[in-house]
Amino acid sequence: MASTITFYSNLIDINYPVVGQDNDTQGFRDNFSAIQSAFAVASSELSNLQDNGVKLTETNDFNYNTIKNVTLQNTSELVKNRNISTISTSNAYVSLDYTEGSYHKCNLTVNPSGTGTLSFSIVNWPASGNYGRMFLELYANSTSTTTVSILGNTKIIGFNTGSIAFNQTSSIFYELWTIDNGTNIYGTLSN
Amino acid sequence: MASTVTTISSTINVNFPKFGESLSNVGEFQANFKKIYNSFGILGKEVNNYLNDAIKKDDANDFGGNVIKSAVLQNHSYRVNDLGSVDNGLVTINYREGAYHKCNINSGYYTFNFVNWSQQNTLSKIRLEIYNQSTATTSTSFIGFSGKVRYYGTLTSQVSLTGNSSIFYDVWTVDSGNTISIKPLGSLSTIEPTYYSGGGGSGGGGGGPLPTITSVIPGLFGSIGYEGITIIGTNFVAGTYVKVNNIAITTSTGSPTQITFTSAPNIPGTPVSVEVITSNGSTSTVVYYYDNSGGGGGDGGGTE
Question: ipTM greater than 0.85, yes or no?
Answer without folding.
Answer: no
